[in-house]
């Protein structure tokens, strides 16, 4: 571990002067981007942050007050696994790739760039949220997520610089040039161009979109390209907290809304809460965009990624016994003449759908837990996930109208009516905005959200997680 180098790392950066120099030239550009596009209004504040300082399973992070621009963004790979072969696809059992195989160069670069692009995008999307934080605890979690997404960008830029030479360096610069939501230079994937203007959206995003990140990273953590495998494995350690923030954040909003609904006879908006129906519509919005992130149900890209050993299935090594996925098929419902029809697809071409299914199961688990919370509060309401066909912009179902439950709709007008009922309305957004007033006294919580069950790193709930003075 070289923690005191200009760029903290465990990749022996100082032994490769050219690479070190190239990354040290990228570093000030990253810093400049962080000052421009990172959390607005809090760059000079002390934040109680964890910093990755080791890749051991226990004790990999150090907690302390840090000003965000001084955060030690580093390059950390999990330890080498000598002798671990490619685990799936056509190159199965051959030695893992330590350099980029020429024939896979383009697909690999595309995977790394797509992954890398999401990291700064999310920081851009979240940059104004500090100004309306529901508590110092939540404010700190927002910033923790933001600095770690910055580190994930570093992880991808390291791969680009180290393994892709000049075009890798150009891609590294492009990652700082695209902007979330910008019409001329948008981020690559659509969920990362959607605005996040309030904390309900933030919790939906970290619950549902960071969770796509978990599954994509896990698929890349099976990669036969060893540096990609090792870097994504370590990213997943940090990612767990992002998912915790999202899942418990939504759970806390749901609990508070249920309490206020009971106390106000179903008038939670009148007593400063967010109606459960509004929460439902926000979840519906973000879930449908998150499903798009898995790509087309039938994808030759996905088949290529799998064949070449670059991107596996979720827990490929531990969960499956057969790793070629050859001569196997998956039934995918497709749309033909306005009807849902089953189509047999080679399993390799269905890998996006296979990963999406893991994601859906995991999300359904979280929804069951939220519904338990609502029950505990003695309120009669159920959060539902829309059908996977509903409101999709990518893949087989894009361009077709479906109900929330997934039934085909005959025309554009009926689809528009369905969307008007199921997606956030102007009134929903108004209600949510109306409760977004900052709460910044240690230990205090905004009225619309229940407190968390415990603090960060065993600190008390009224710990000063961010020093604002
Ligand atoms: N929006 O065969 P298809 C995270 C494009 S999140 C816009 O369906 P493929 C994080 C696609 O690029 C995890 N465009 O797609 C979370 C292709 O374009 P081209 C991010 C889309 O390649 C929160 C065309 O449509 N990581 O880490 O099989 C905070 C048709 O392609 C979208 C990864 O995504 C979309 N939603 O699968 C911070 C992993 N979907 O080439 C961070 C790396 C597809 O025709 N990426 N397109 O111009 C991949 O594995 C694949 O690229 C995808 C798409 C799964 C995304
Ligand atoms: Fe990330
Ligand atoms: Fe994340």
Q: Could you tell me how far the N terminus lies from the C terminus, measured between alpha carbons in angstroms?
A: 35 Å
Total beta strand runs: 5
- From the alpha-carbon coordinates, what is the Rg to the nearest angstrom? 23 Å
Mean pLDDT: 97
**Topology as H/E string?**
HEEHHHHHHHEEHHHE
Estimated share of beta-strand residues: 5-15%
Instruction: Find the structural class using helix and strand composition.
Output: mainly alpha
- What is the architecture at the second tier of CATH? Orthogonal Bundle
Specify the helix fraction band: 40-55%
The named CATH superfamily: Ribonucleotide Reductase, subunit A
Low-confidence stretches: none
Name of the top-level CATH class: Mainly Alpha
As laid out across the biggest beta sheet, the strand order is 2-1-5
In total, the number of domains comes to 1
Which ligands are bound?
Answer: benzoyl coenzyme A, fe (iii) ion
Q: What form results from the Cα inertia axes? A: globular
Specify the number of helices: 11
| Biggest beta sheet summary | 3 strands, antiparallel
The CATH topology is what?
A: Ribonucleotide Reductase, subunit A
Overview of this protein structure:
The chain has a single domain, classed as Ribonucleotide Reductase, subunit A (Orthogonal Bundle), CATH 1.10.620. Helices cover 47% and strands 7% of the residues. It contains 11 helices and 5 strands. The strands form 2 sheets. Strands 2-1-5 form a 3-stranded antiparallel beta sheet. The chain starts with 16 loop residues before the first helix and ends with a strand. It binds benzoyl coenzyme A (BYC) and fe (iii) ion (2 copies). One fe (iii) ion is lined by residues 149, 210, 213, 239, 242.
């Amino acid at each position: 571990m070289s923690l005191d180098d200009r760029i903290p790392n465990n990749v022996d950066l100082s032994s490769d002067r050219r690479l070190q120099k190239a990354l040290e030239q990228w570093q000030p550009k990253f810093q400049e981007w962080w000052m421009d596009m990172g959390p607005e209004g809090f760059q000079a504040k002390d934040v109680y942050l964890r910093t990755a300082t080791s890749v051991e399973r226990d004790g990999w992070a150090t907690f302390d007050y840090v000003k965000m621009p001084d955060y030690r963004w580093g390059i950390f790979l999990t330890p080498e696994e000598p002798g671990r072969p490619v685990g799936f696809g056509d190159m199965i059992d051959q030695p893992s790739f330590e350099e980029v195989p020429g024939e896979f160069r383009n697909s690999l670069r595309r995977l790394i760039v797509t992954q890398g692009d999401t990291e700064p995008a999310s920081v851009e999307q979240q940059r104004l949220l500090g100004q309306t934080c529901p508590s110092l605890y939540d404010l700190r979690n927002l910033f923790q997520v933001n600095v770690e997404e910055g580190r994930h960008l570093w992880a991808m830029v390291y791969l680009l610089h180290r393994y892709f030479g000049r075009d890798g360096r150009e891609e590294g610069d492009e990652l700082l040039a695209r902007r979330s939501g910008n019409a001329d230079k948008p981020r690559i994937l659509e969920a990362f161009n959607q605005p996040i203007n309030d904390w309900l959206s933030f919790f939906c995003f970290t619950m549902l979109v960071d969770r796509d990140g978990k599954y994509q990273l896990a698929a890349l953590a099976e990669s036969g390209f060893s540096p990609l495998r090792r870097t994504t494995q370590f990213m997943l350690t940090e990612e767990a907290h992002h998912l915790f923030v999202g899942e418990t954040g939504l759970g806390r909003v749901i609990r508070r809304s249920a309490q206020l609904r009971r106390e106000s006879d179903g008038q939670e908006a009148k007593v400063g809460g967010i109606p459960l129906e509004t929460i439902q519509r926000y979840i519906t919005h973000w879930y449908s965009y998150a499903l798009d992130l898995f790509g087309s149900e039938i994808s030759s890209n996905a088949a290529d990624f799998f064949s070449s050993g670059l991107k596996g299935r979720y827990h490929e090594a531990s969960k499956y016994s057969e790793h070629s996925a050859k001569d196997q098929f998956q039934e995918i419902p497709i749309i033909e003449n306005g009807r849902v029809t089953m189509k047999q697809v080679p399993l390799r071409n269905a890998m996006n759908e296979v990963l999406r299914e893991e994601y859906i199961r995991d999300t359904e688990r979280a929804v069951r837990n939220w519904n338990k919370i609502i029950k505990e509060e003695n309120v009669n309401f159920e959060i539902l996930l829309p059908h996977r066909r509903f409101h999709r912009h990518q893949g087989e179902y894009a361009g077709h109208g479906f109900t929330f439950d997934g039934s085909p709709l005959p025309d554009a007008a009926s689809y528009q009516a369905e969307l008007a009922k199921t997606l956030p309305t102007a009134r929903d957004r108004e209600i949510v905005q109306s409760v977004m007033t900052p709460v910044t006294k240690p230990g205090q919580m905004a009225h619309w959200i229940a407190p968390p069950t415990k603090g960060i790193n065993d600190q008390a709930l009224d710990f000063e997680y961010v020093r604002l003075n």
